[in-house]
Structure formats: C-alpha cells, structure tokens
Amino acid sequence: MSKVNYAVAEKTTTTWLTPKSIVDLLGPFDLDPCTPQEGMPWRTAKTMLTPADDGLATPWPVEDLVWHNPPYGRGQELWMEKAADHGNNISLVFARTDTRWAHRFVFGHSNCRAVLFTEGRLKFCNTEGVEGDACPTGSMFVAYGAEAERRLRKAWENGDIKGHFISMQRMEVSDF
Questions:
Q1: How far is CA 8 from CA 3, 5, 12, 13, 163, in A?
Q2: How far is CA 95 from CA 24, 63, 99, 122, in A?
Q3: pTM greater than 0.90
Q4: Cβ neighbours of 149 (radius 10 Å)
Q5: Mean pLDDT, to the nearest integer, of 111-121?
Q6: DSSP 57-100
Q7: In whole angstroms, what is the distance from residue 165 CA to residue 57 CA?
Q8: Mind listing the pLDDT tens digit for each residue in 22-70?
Q9: What contacts 78, CB < 8 A, 6 or more positions away?
Q10: How far apart are CA 141 and CA 103, in angstroms?
Q11: 3-class state of residue 165 by DSSP
C-alpha cells in the first residue's frame, strides 16, 4: 500500500495559465472566454471571462479575435466546437489528434486554417504566474480564420514558436 504525500498534493493545481510571452507574441486579443480565475497575473485579452461569466454560454462577437485556451478534459469538445464555429481565434490545446473533437473541429472544420504542432512540451504557469514543469504531452495551436493563421504563421516563421506548421488547405471532392 502506497502512502500519499499530502504536502505535494496540497501544492498540486489543475489551473495552469498560458505563459505571458505566448499571449504577447500572438496578441493582442479582444476576448478570452476561458480566463481560469479572477486576479490573473497578466492580461490575455481586452475582455476576459472567468468561469463565473460562463464563456461557453456567452456569445463571442464574430469581429473579436479570441484567445482560446479551454479547460482540458471533459467538456473540451464543446469548447472546440464553439471555437471552430466562431472562426476568428487561436486555440491552444493538447495535441490529441485521435480525439473526436480534433477530427470534427480541427481537421474536419472549414474554419480551421492552420495547425502548429509544438516542438517539445510547453511549460505553463501556476496561478501566481510561476512557470511549472513541462506539461505531460505535446501541444498544438489551432488557427481559425485568416488573421489567426497570419499571426501563427509569423510566430513560426520567426522561430518564436518552434514546431511544425501545417496550412489546412481544403480540397473539394470535385478536385480529384
């Protein structure tokens, strides 16, 4: 029988913030519907919705460029569907290419313009803004819309975000 290390468990969090450097690099953004807490150590967008505001139920104005780092796990499919249908945002998610949401709302959605798979694992920050260890899996940035694709491509071309950039040019059945 193993012993639980309560000192470690008390310091464990499920709330991890996107590093300010990434948001600054890809921004500015008009809306962040997934701000995990009040009193963030940095701004991610002009308008920041917390769980109390319910960013999933709140309409996202189509003209707003959205920063979207949704809660991971259960419910993520709903967030990705909303992001894809909105069509003017950059989403940062785990690179779970086998999931239903990835097939429906990334690879199979007409608003998805590009994907950037990160080289190496990102390090997110705790609620005080202190960088943690590398996350347990790779990440991908998903660009919905032309402006999001332009910003993501520029960050990749400049070497600011290392990884593999894939433009999602769509082919119609009649193109074959």
A1: 12, 6, 6, 10, 32
A2: 22, 27, 9, 11
A3: no
A4: 21
A5: 96
A6: TS---TTS-EEE-PPPSTTHHHHHHHHHHH-SEEEEEE--TTSH
A7: 31
A8: 999 999 999 999 998 888 899 999 999 999 999 999 999 999 999 999 9
A9: 56
A10: 15
A11: strand
| Residues 51, 130, 164, 81, Cα dihedral to 10° | 0
Give a three-class secondary structure readout of 125-162. Answer: ECCCCCEEEECCCCEEEEEECHHHHHHHHHHHHCCCCC
- Phi/psi of residue 87, each to 5°? 75, 20
State the greatest distance between any 2 C-alpha atoms of the chain, in Å, as a whole number: 62
At which residue do the structure tokens 């940095």 appear? 42
Q: Is 118 within 8 Å of 112 (Cβ atoms)? A: no
| Per-residue pLDDT, 173 | 52
In single-letter form, the type of residue at position 25 comes to L
